[in-house]
Design brief:
The strands form three sheets. An eight-stranded parallel beta barrel has the order 3-4-5-8-9-10-11-12, surrounded by six helices. It has a two-stranded antiparallel sheet with strand order 1-2. Strand 9, helix 7 and strand 10 form a beta-alpha-beta unit. With 254 residues, the chain is an alpha/beta fold. It is built from ten helices and twelve strands. The chain binds NADP nicotinamide-adenine-dinucleotide phosphate. The site of NADP nicotinamide-adenine-dinucleotide phosphate (NAP) has 26 residues, from helix 1, strand 12 and helix 10.
Length: 254
């Protein structure tokens, strides 16, 4: 069984309908999963990535906010960088158990450079603003998106956008011609259904986060999100290869 792929909006990239979310590869503190967990060992993480690749996953989502996730992925993907589309973020950093936020253009440039270095690559496929909830302030006042567009023009990034927290923020991002948004969609949280359909129709790539409500919903919720109009790929966070296979099977016919 190989996962189907879909265009990521008008970016020219094609993504598997499930992507791999990697919070649990690098961060245990300040997350809202139903049960505590240990970070996987390097050998376990390598097996997870191999299993994902075999199932047809071609998208990995990470962020500086996910603790050691970027650095671990950089090491694990050293000889297979080109097998994957890498999505990372700017704006939230996590160190010593605490998140800090900086959306200034100066920080964005440093953050993207750090991500390029951590991931051992010369180009990031997708970089999203990792919103702290103040979507409109970030998009209207801080120059964050313009800076990402400038880095895209320099060839450091292929597509830019926002992992938003508000519908108004996502609407503004669409008006500002973002390439990609990362939206929340699951059976218990359907307020972005129309927005996602419109974004997709407008040629914006749509990634979905929290499709299983961070582990508080089942695979019916994952299927619902993957089937929704406008969705390019659902980024599912798992460190369990069996769950990965189960999740792939649930959406394979879409
Ligand atoms: N602001 C942002 O930009 C933002 C915020 C949140 C998330 N994200 C991205 O979106 C990704 C997904 O979000 P998420 O991790 O919060 O939530 P999620 O994908 O809805 O749920 C992940 C949780 O579901 C469990 N799970 C997955 N498949 C399962 C299965 N078949 N059976 C039982 N449990 C299963 C996982 O546990 P196991 O490990 O045991 O499978 C994990 O605890 C993240 O990893 C991240 O990449 C971005």
């Amino acid at each position: 069984m190989i996962l189907p792929r879909r265009p990521l909006g008008d970016t020219g990239m094609t993504v598997s309908i499930l992507g791999l979310g990697t919070v649990k590869l690098g961060r245990r503190e300040g997350v809202r999963y139903p049960a505590p967990f240990e970070l996987p060992s390097d050998a376990e993480a390598a097996r997870l990535l191999d299993a994902a690749r075999e199932l047809g996953f071609n998208l990995i989502d990470t962020a500086p906010a996910y603790g050691t996730s970027e650095a671990r992925l950089g090491r694990l993907l050293l000889d297979r960088r080109n097998d994957w589309l890498l999505c990372t973020k700017v704006g939230e950093n996590f160190a010593n158990g605490t998140s800090t936020y900086d959306f200034s253009p100066e920080h964005v440039q440093v953050s993207v450079k750090n991500s390029l270095q951590s991931l051992h690559t010369d180009r990031l496929d997708i970089v999203l603003i990792h919103s702290d909830g103040n979507d409109l302030d970030i998009l209207n006042g801080l120059g964050t998106l313009d800076c990402l567009k400038e880095l895209k023009a320099r060839g450091w990034i292929r597509a830019v956008g926002i992992s938003h927290k508000t519908i108004a923020g996502a609407e503004r991002a669409l008006a500002l011609d973002c390439d990609v948004i990362m939206a929340t969609l699951n059976l218990a949280e359907q307020s972005e259904v129309d927005l996602i359909a419109r974004a997709g129709a407008a040629g914006c790539g749509v990634l979905v986060k929290k499709a299983m409500a961070s582990g508080h919903s089942g695979t019916d919720s994952l299927r619902f999100a993957a089937a929704a109009e406008g969705v390019s790929s659902v980024v599912i966070g798992t460190i369990n290869p069996e769950h990965l296979r189960e999740n792939a099977a649930v959406v394979a016919d879409l």
